[in-house]
Design goal:
This protein has 315 residues and is of the alpha/beta class. It has two domains: 133 residues, HprK N-terminal domain-like (Udp-n-acetylmuramoylalanyl-d-glutamate--2,6- Diaminopimelate Ligase, Chain: A, domain 1); 167 residues, Rossmann fold. The protein is 36% helix and 29% strand. The strands form four sheets. Strands 8, 9, 10, 11, 12, 13, 16, 17 and 18 form a nine-stranded mixed β-sheet that branches. A hairpin with a 2-residue loop joins strand 9 and strand 10. The longest helix is centred in the C-terminal third of the chain and has 18 residues.
Length: 315
């Protein structure tokens, strides 16, 4: 089970959610518990039957409070604030804040927050955030890049030139996501998202002989990206002459790697003197995009060759 306090929620997400603290600050250590199968129940509109940990109250809920009898209203507030499941309340739609809400929030130490966003935006944002927090994740050794809009993880043994290749790609206009040990988590059954595991460390790249470089300072803000879906792995490999001969000359060295039960296409790229790896990697990415669209150059080559042979045989 994953959990965070209301204070942590406010500290890390107040700007994105346009949150302002109104009352109940003594309850800032209340814990929002996130279970793998219950993230959708963690936040929602005012509900006493199936109480959410984060309850949202807007114009519709306020109009309901205004129409019920005072005794029923007081009983409703008592039931809301005395529920052990509740962690905080977010008021939206710029509604007039009932003094009773503030009073109950202070009495029961339930954080009362306001937001300028719509309820749907708050719910969608928190669902995404909570799902990300509990998602299965792993770290892989390599350099994660955004190349031509495709998330590419460059892997390879020590000395294969991963960082040098990444630096050349950045100089060619591509973007760095994370160096050394990017973190990946599963977004869905078919998608992995990758990011730098340490906040603020995305711009840094280690290049042997040059040390630690800040590619953002060197190349500008467009040289980095906070996160990206992983779509392709490029494995840099020192190969013997025999290994090079064993590579399929039509289709290349393509395989699939399974990460967190998600299959990711992988390309083996031989490392040898004189090979322009940046150009080859860009070409690999473009070719991957064509294959996703259903085009395979090797298949077309074989088809045309077969047609040519058949045509010659007819003569």
């Amino acid at each position: 089970m994953t959990a965070l306090t209301v204070e942590e929620l406010y500290k890390h997400h107040a700007d994105e959610l346009s949150l302002h603290w109104l009352a109940g600050e003594m309850g800032n250590e209340r814990i929002i518990e996130l279970e793998n199968n219950q993230t959708l129940g963690s936040v929602g509109y005012f509900n006493l039957i199936h109480p959410h940990q984060i309850q949202i109250i807007g114009a519709y809920e306020k109009s309901y409070f205004d129409t019920i009898e005072k005794t029923v209203y007081q009983s409703t507030l008592k039931q809301l604030f005395e529920n052990e499941n509740i962690c905080c309340i977010i008021l939206i739609d710029n509604i007039e804040i009932p003094t009773d809400l503030k009073r109950y929030a202070e009495k029961h130490q339930i954080p009362l927050l306001t937001s300028q966003l719509s309820g749907e935006n708050i719910i969608n944002y928190l669902h995404t955030t909570f799902a990300r927090m509990i998602a299965p994740r792993t770290n892989l050794h390599g350099v994660f890049m955004d190349v031509l809009g495709i998330g590419v993880l460059i892997m390879g043994g020590s000395g294969t030139g991963k960082s040098e290749l990444a630096l050349e790609l950045v100089s060619r206009g591509h973007r760095l996501v994370a160096d050394d040990t990017p973190e990946f988590y599963r977004v869905s059954s078919t998608v992995l998202n990758g990011t730098c595991p340490v906040a603020g460390m995305t711009p840094f790249l280690e290049v042997r002989g040059l040390g630690i470089l800040n590619v953002q300072a060197l190349f500008g803000d467009s040289a980095i990206k906070k996160e990206k879906f992983l779509r392709l792995i490029v494995q840099l490999e020192h190969m013997t002459t025999q290994q090079l001969h064993n590579i399929d000359r039509l289709q290349g060295d393509y395989r699939v790697r399974r990460i967190l039960d998600v299959e990711v296409p992988e390309i083996g790229l031989p490392v040898a003197p004189g090979r322009n790896l940046a150009v080859l990697l860009e070409c690999a990415v473009r070719n991957y995009s064509l294959k996703v669209q259903g085009y395979n150059a090797a298949d077309e080559f074989c088809t045309l060759q077969r047609q040519l042979i058949q045509g010659n045989n007819l003569h």
